[in-house]
Amino acid sequence: MTGEIAVSGCAAAPPSPEGQPDPEMKPVPEPRVAPEIPRGSELTWAHAGAVIFAVVLVVATATTAATFAAYGFDNVTGFGAPRAFVPGEIEGLLAARLALFLLTFQFVVVVLGLSIGKIAGSWGRSAAAHDRAPPTFGRPHAEPRAARLVSMAMPAGGARVIIASTGVLMAMAVSYGLAIYAIDPLAVAQDVGPFADLMKSETWWLVAIAAIIGAPIAEELLFRGVLFNALKASPLGAGVAAVVSAAMWAALHVNYSIYGLLAIFLIGLYLAWVRATTGTLLAPMVCHGVYNASIFLLLMSVPDGAFAT
Questions:
Q1: What pTM value is reported for the model?
Q2: Helices (H) and strands (E) in the chain, counts
Q3: Is-contact 109 221, C-beta < 8 A?
């Protein structure tokens, strides 16, 4: 015996000169160590399910509102009534109708998406817990917590990161497009042909605004901002979150060919990676906008009937 008595959870009391513990002295508590924060998710499975349901509800609500807007357009312009049209009038009305549908859809998505993002951003653990969670795609978290689902800040690398991200997307898109055109030219015509004539109308610029500005803002906010960023903070993790958000985004383009749907899905995966690694929606929005702009330039530059099926 060494003359020391072990006390559970405390350091031993100093012995008296006679080798016995001094009854007047209290045990010295051991220093407390903060409990390890579990390396896991901020949000629960219930949160993940709620976000997915909310996104589906937003898309359904926006589609309904856009459909009513298009119906009102038909009544005001008499587009659906049997009558004679001057040359080019049908294309112009179709383009304006499509633009109204898209812009209405996008407006509703932005309004409701921001509301859901604000609610979902208040869920989860503290900022310290999020900082100690596993990195996303092998990189440290670029943002302190889930509250910044719709961050629009400039990425750490500045404009160079955005330009590089956009360049990679365009390289992949061109390679994929050329490969599919070599395999099945009719599939390419099916996907872009319906828009080719609209780009030659007098109201083409309305569709351009909706596709180049409205679509990147609304769709990236909802799918890469709210949906992806919330799901990656859940038990699903970043990988599954990217797949789910890309698949739901591709479902918006259900009228595309199987090759077109695959292209949208792959682009969605890439944009989710850009969102996660840059920590901002600005980069995927610019990528999305430049991609859509390139499609417009292609449609406006090809001869009439080039995509006729």
A1: 0.79
A2: 11, 0
A3: yes
